[in-house]
Amino acid sequence: MHYHGDRQHPVHNLWRIRRYVRPYLGQMVWLVLAAFAATGASIAVPLVVAQVVDGPIAHRDPVGLWQLGALAAVFGLIEAGLIFIRRWTQAASALGMETTIRNELYAHLQRLQISFHDQWQTGQLLSRITADLSVIRRFLSFGLVFLIVNTATYITVVALLIHLRWPLGLLVATSGIPLFLLSRHFSRHYIAASRRMQDELGDVATLVEESAQGLRTIKSFGRRPHMAKRFGREARRLHDTAIGKGRLLALSSARFDLVPNLTLAIVLVAGSVAVAHDAMTLGELVAFVSLQLMLIWPIESLGWIIANAQEAMTAADRIHDVLDTPPSIVDRPAAVALRESEGHLRFEGVSFTYPGTSAPVLRRIDLDVRPGETLAIVGATGSGKTSLVSLAPRLYDVSGGRITLDGRDIRDIQLTSLRRLVGMAFEEPTLFSMSVRENLTLGRHEATDEEIAEALAVAQAEFVYDLPWRLDTRIGEQGLSLSGGQRQRLALARAVVSRPRVLVLDDPLSALDVHTEALVEDALARVLRGTTALLVVHRPSTVALADRVALLADGEIVAIGTHSELLSDVPAYRAALSASASLEADASGTELEVDDVVSR
């Protein structure tokens, strides 16, 4: 996804980066002063050389030659020392700024609502928090400093050239006009190419990330050639854009280089004529040419500086695409922090529509889940079960109506408190590339080994003690080194460890075999006695955990009651369980009746 939003001019977004510069303003001032001093020392050398040519060399004065040579050497050493100081300071300040921006961007991504992440490609976010920040760092550490220093150098040297020989000095100054016109033309085309390339880099990053996560699927279907061709197509597109961008830079650099060289040729011819007619000394001509040669680097670097600035503008633009997106799920001004809760959860006239869509997923939902009660949500695929339970911890906000916890609207409870009180385990578990212990205590860092062991027993996940380093064993990315059932059991144990007052389980047993599922259900039944629970049911056998069952159809609650009541009075409920029982029977290779499944 290439989000452009209400696009500000790129210069505006780059200017907004200045707030990250302020803490390092003192260092930036010192490095600019050091750069100016180093430039001053380098400018002084040609002036000393002019004195050497017109003085000791012309008058054959060895002592004066040694003295002026030593003075030139001193200026050279001073320049070298100042350059070291400048580069050291540049690196430290630029890396500090980059780290600050990266931390803020990452924190903002964590605050943004799930609907934002639903709409954005992971690779696009990844490229912004890595490649784009590196571009900005390069500009702040080198491009910006060289822009200031080179501009000051150009003005100073041109002023000295006019002082030495004003006709030739004006010629050099006039050569800046075509350079200005070239830079405008270059900037206009390069910024579009930069934005296109950085967006395409995000697309490639997304493709790599998806391919890495779906490697098993790709191999199992024998689609490696197809995915390689798809990647090659995206990589070729990125390559062509980069080549076009490089061609722009190369062409402009050649033009920037041509202008000063033509000017230098004219100066050499005109200066030689002036020396021949005694209108200028040889030393002055040497100094003039030496000073003019000092302009070669500022002019040649002009293309690189402009390119770096354009890329930084584009990077700042892309970063502010994210930073300018306000979180929609936030604490209300009067939100309170709750430390304890009875666990009384109510849905009052709740409706929900996913952001960016118009069709409501849920309509007129009224549920009253009493403290300590387990309510199962049953329904066909696509009926809105997962959407319904995702509203309880405010992963999404209701579009209409309200949800209350102990009579208080959950939007009036601070998010950190609410998500400590409402724990959730998903059907598709997410495990992080860290130790088993760190994964289990993600929601409650202070959990003891005894509490972890108890949660592992509930989830039948004691297999972790057979891992090489037990709880300290590092799990690979997404936990792919574990089976689907093992990942689900660890995710369930993580939810139990957090000790929530309201536990939301989105069919967390779907990947378990029948025997393990029965053991987990027995243990869960004991855990759920004192906990309010919302339980999404896809497998009929899990209904036995619930005190009451709500049947969801087309986004509405069409029936609610005990399992036996619904089974005898609501044909739609029996049909929904029969369909699920058939799927479960197909998966296990046995024939099961609905009554058999739910009474196990």
Verbal overview:
This protein has helices at 10-15, 18-21, 25-59, 62-111, 114-119, 122-164, 166-174, 176-213, 215-220, 224-276, 282-293, 296-323, 385-390, 415-421, 436-440, 449-458, 484-497, 514-527, 563-569, 571-588, 594-598, and strands at 345-352, 362-369, 374-379, 400-405, 408-409, 422-425, 502-506, 532-537, 548-553, 556-561. The protein is an alpha/beta fold and 600 residues long. The chain has 2 domains: 10-323, Up-down Bundle (ABC transporter transmembrane region fold); 345-594, P-loop containing nucleotide triphosphate hydrolases (Rossmann fold). The chain has a 6-stranded mixed beta sheet. A 4-stranded antiparallel beta sheet has the order 2-1-4-5, with no helix packed on it. A hairpin with a 2-residue loop joins β9 and β10. The longest helix is centred in the middle third of the chain and has 53 residues, at 224-276. It is elongated and about 120 Å long. Residues 1-6 and 586-600 have low confidence and may be disordered.
Biggest pleated sheet: 6 strands, mixed
Number of strands: 10
The stretches of 5 or more residues where confidence is low (pLDDT under 50) are: 1-6, 586-600
Q: The CATH topology of the largest domain is what? A: ABC transporter transmembrane region fold
Briefly note the structural class of the backbone: alpha/beta
| CATH level-4 homologous superfamily of the largest domain | ABC transporter type 1, transmembrane domain
Number of structural units classed as domains: 2
Strand content: 5-15%
Helix content: 55-70%
Q: How many alpha or pi helices?
A: 21
Termini separation comes to: 48 Å
CATH class division of the largest domain: Mainly Alpha
Report the mean per-residue pLDDT as an integer: 79
